[in-house]
Design goal:
- With 262 residues, this protein is of the alpha+beta class.
- It is 16% helix and 37% strand.
- The chain has four helices and 15 strands.
- Strand 10 and strand 11 form a beta hairpin.
- The longest helix has 16 residues.
């Protein structure tokens, strides 16, 4: 081992020792399927999951059977550390037998088996802000697993969202797209066209001559940008319906129109 590696290991171990303290519990990651409009508007959604909590039977002496206490670790004498020799240097490492606790359980609790944890069904309310999308992670502070020692904070709960599709609205970023079928006569003559937007019904006054695939944009009527407040656009795509069958009168009028058009 060269001197640089020795000093790196020496000071690295010292930093680890200085950072020791009550270790928080593990984080929990969950997935949540979210309705399209809940993602657009925001919502409060209850989420249930199986987690763990501190065992109530061994609360006085975690992990131990009632009336018993942990025994002092014979490997480290209760210090939680053991000496490791490396050439001319001696380092203190975490005890491998008691994992740095200084004690070990001789009579484990019958309810939790010495883990000091029992399973429980938990439910939390997840506050969904407006504008979330698939892949958004919501963090709930201190809603994860309990800490390993008394006084240690719980870990965090992370909820990853999967936003469901919508039969009418299609989302691209913060823009919302819809397809609006219109009749051939409406495309030719124009006029008022009703559409359903995120904010309710809108009436579009269209000029004559709407082309197949033509777009009409309603600015700032789309989805909210997450944590920003500004909105995208609402884009209407017109789809002209061409009739496959005509009544005799319609046939007559179309032929007359074709004659005039020529």
């Amino acid at each position: 081992m060269n001197p640089e590696d020795i000093f790196s290991e020496l000071f690295g171990r010292r930093r680890q020792q200085q950072q020791r303290g009550p270790r928080p519990g593990s984080d929990v990651q969950l997935g949540l399927k979210l309705e399209f409009m809940d993602a657009i508007r925001g919502a409060k959604v209850p989420v249930s999951f199986m987690g763990t909590t501190n065992c109530s039977k061994c609360e006085e002496s975690p992990g131990c059977a009632p009336g018993t206490n942990p025994a002092t670790c014979p490997a480290c004498g209760g210090t939680g550390q053991e000496a490791v020799n490396s050439g001319f240097f001696q380092f203190m490492n975490m005890c491998g037998k008691c994992r740095g606790k200084g004690t070990f359980i001789t009579s484990p609790c019958g309810d939790c088996g010495g883990s000091a944890r029992v399973s429980e069904q938990r439910e939390v309310i997840v506050s969904i802000p407006a504008g979330v999308d698939t892949g958004t992670n919501i963090r709930l502070l201190n809603q994860g697993e309990p800490g390993e020692t008394k006084g240690a904070a719980r870990g965090h709960l992370y909820v990853e969202l999967q936003v469901m599709g919508h039969p009418y609205f299609k989302r691209k970023g913060i823009d919302i797209h819809v397809e609006r079928p219109i009749s051939l006569s409406k495309a030719v003559l124009g006029g008022d066209i009703r559409i359903e937007s995120l904010d309710g019904e809108e009436i579009l006054n269209m000029v004559p001559g709407i082309q197949p695939g033509q777009r009409h944009i309603l600015p700032r009527k789309g989805a909210v940008k997450l944590n920003a407040g500004n909105r995208g656009d609402f884009v209407v795509h017109f789809k002209v319906r061409v009739p496959k069958q005509l009544t005799p009168r319609q046939q007559e009028l179309m032929e007359e129109f074709a004659t005039i058009e020529e």
